[in-house]
Design goal:
The protein is α/β, with parallel strands linked by helices. The chain is about 45% helix and about 10% strand. The chain contains 2 helices and 3 strands; from the N terminus they run E-H-E-H-E. The longest helix is centred in the middle third of the chain and has 28 residues.
Length: about 110
């Protein structure tokens, strides 16, 4: 933000996906599962928390744009971490949109 203080829109896009079969729990690598949740959800939350102060301080319209997926609504059963992380992201975006509603010049899409 120091290098590019005029930034008024940030497009957040990240995703990783792996198949997990909990009917074979020994085959589930929990470290990979948790990393997928981090990449697909927690990283968006961390970036949002870091970016919102800059965007709120601007006297012009500003936006955060998130990439989503229909899997947030209808899970792919072989992709539990991906499905859950994208559903969590969808809920987070709805909450964020509502919380920023009265800031006049901000949009979350």
């Amino acid at each position: 933000m120091k290098t590019y203080p005029s930034i008024d829109c940030v497009f957040l896009n990240a995703g990783t996906v792996h198949r997990f079969d909990f009917s074979k729990p020994d085959s589930v690598d929990l470290e990979v599962f948790n990393r997928e949740i981090t990449v697909n959800f927690t990283s968006f939350v961390a970036l949002t928390q870091s970016l919102v102060p800059h965007l709120l301080a601007r006297n012009e319209p500003s936006s955060l744009i998130f990439t989503g997926t229909q899997i947030s609504l209808v899970p792919a059963f072989s992709l539990p971490a991906y499905s859950a992380s994208k559903a969590a992201l969808d809920a987070f975006i709805m909450c964020l949109r509502e919380q920023l509603r009265d800031t006049d010049r901000k949009s979350v899409v």
